[in-house]
Design a protein that fits this description.
The protein has 2 domains: about 150 residues, Quinone Oxidoreductase, Chain A, domain 1; about 150 residues, 3-Layer(aba) Sandwich (Rossmann fold). Helix 3 links the parallel strand 8 and strand 9. The protein is an alpha/beta fold. Strands 3, 4, 5, 6, 7, 14 and 15 form a 7-stranded mixed sheet that branches. Bound molecules: NADPH dihydro-nicotinamide-adenine-dinucleotide phosphate. The site of NADPH dihydro-nicotinamide-adenine-dinucleotide phosphate (NDP) has 29 residues, from helix 2, helix 3 and helix 9. InterPro entries: ADH-like_C, ADH_N_2, ER, GroES-like_sf, MDR_fam, NAD(P)-bd_dom_sf, PTGR1. It is found in: Cytoplasm.
């Protein structure tokens, strides 16, 4: 097997020299075990903050869609496809625990990589993070940042399905074009806007009912001031702060939460593990009906995993960043 390990803990933005490609001979299978081969691997922002909990030399965290190539476990026959959290490896041995079979109604015409994106963890995040925390109602205004990414692009489309006006922000003009193509009402480039406050006001002069936050930091500071009374906020990610060496303090914006009576709730998708299937079923149905468009940014070659991960953190991706082995 080939695997990528973490040479040292990341300091600031992850760099190519933080990663090492290793070869590992896997032992013969014991009874109850199976050998899987990764087909697609996922590079996700959470790998950056959660790597702090890993030791130097450990395999890099991550999930994949993998096929059973050898099995001594009758519950997992050769040829079956599963989503696994086995880290950045081409091959790995499992006892079957923690493997999730692809949804049984998986259509033949959909790439299996979607089990890591629109129909996988990011899809479920967008679905429950928006519908169960923000609870948008028809006619309301929904704001999402990192809007052209895996989660954000789905949040915006689900909000449109629910009859909302949707505003997105993203880091390039190419991404703004993409957002318009998938139905966003308004989109602005947070990197070139002269002021976030102005950009937010221009996109929705009446303010925002719902804010799905993937970014945190200054973007949230500016947005809290534009929220409508009784607005709801899903704190889903803080990608603008994952590389910070010093834990963030402040910001001193609580008066907005108080006087606007905002509801602010953190969201972790793992909490919704026992309701994955329900969300996946709906996401698959919307895709089949053409109501939900998915986009993938595919990097080919296992050896390019660090480049794919670093690129995603820098915003090179439109839609879900995926590595094809
Ligand atoms: P994306 O596909 O959105 O990729 C990350 C994007 O973040 C980049 O494309 C880039 O787009 C944007 N970005 C990077 N740095 C900054 C910055 N400093 N300020 C603003 N935007 C930035 O990733 P995901 O959809 O997988 O994840 C999006 C967010 O959701 C992340 O914060 C992630 O941690 C979170 N998440 C949380 C989950 C949970 O359970 N809470 C589960 C899944 C994801 P751009 O060009 O626009 O800058």
């Amino acid at each position: 097997a080939k695997l990528w390990t973490m040479v040292r803990h990341f300091e600031g933005a992850p760099k190519p020299e933080d990663f090492k490609l290793e070869n590992k001979e896997l032992p013969p299978l014991k009874d109850g075990e199976l050998l899987l081969e990764s087909e697609f691997l996922s590079v996700d922002p959470y790998i950056r903050p959660y790597s702090k909990e890993k030791k130097e030399g450990d395999i890099i965290l991550g999930s994949q869609v993998a096929r059973v190539v050898e099995s001594k476990n009758s519950a997992f026959p050769v040829g079956g496809y599963y989503v696994a959290y086995a880290g950045w490896a081409t091959h790995f041995i499992s006892d079957g625990k923690g493997l999730d079979a692809l949804p049984s109604n998986w259509p033949d015409n959909l790439p299996r990589s979607l089990a890591l994106g629109a129909v996988g963890m990011p899809g479920v995040t967008a679905y429950y993070g928006l519908l169960e925390i923000c609870k948008p109602k028809e006619g309301e205004v929904v704001l999402v940042n990192a809007a052209a990414g895996a989660v954000g692009s789905l949040v915006g489309q689900i909000a449109k399905i629910k009859g909302c006006k949707v505003v997105g922000s993203a880091g390039s003009d190419e991404k703004l074009t993409f957002l318009k193509e998938i139905g966003f009402d308004e989109a602005f480039n947070y990197k070139t806007a002269s002021s976030l406050a102005e950009a937010l006001k221009n996109a929705s002069p009446e303010g925002y009912d719902c804010y799905f936050d993937n970014v945190g930091g200054k973007f949230s500071d500016a947005t809290l001031q534009q929220m409508k009374d009784f607005g709801r906020i899903t704190v889903c990610g803080a990608i603008s702060q994952y590389n910070d060496a010093v834990p963030p303090t402040g910001p001193y914006i609580q008066p907005y939460i108080l006087f606007k009576q905002l509801l602010v709730q953190g969201f972790l998708v793992w909490t919704w593990k026992n309701r994955y299937t329900e969300a996946q079923k709906q996401l698959l149905q919307w895709i089949a009906e053409g109501k939900l468009k998915y986009h993938e940014h595919i990097t080919s070659g296992f050896e390019n995993m660090p480049a794919g991960f670093i690129g995603m953190l820098k915003g090179e991706n439109i839609g879900k960043a995926i590595i094809k082995v």
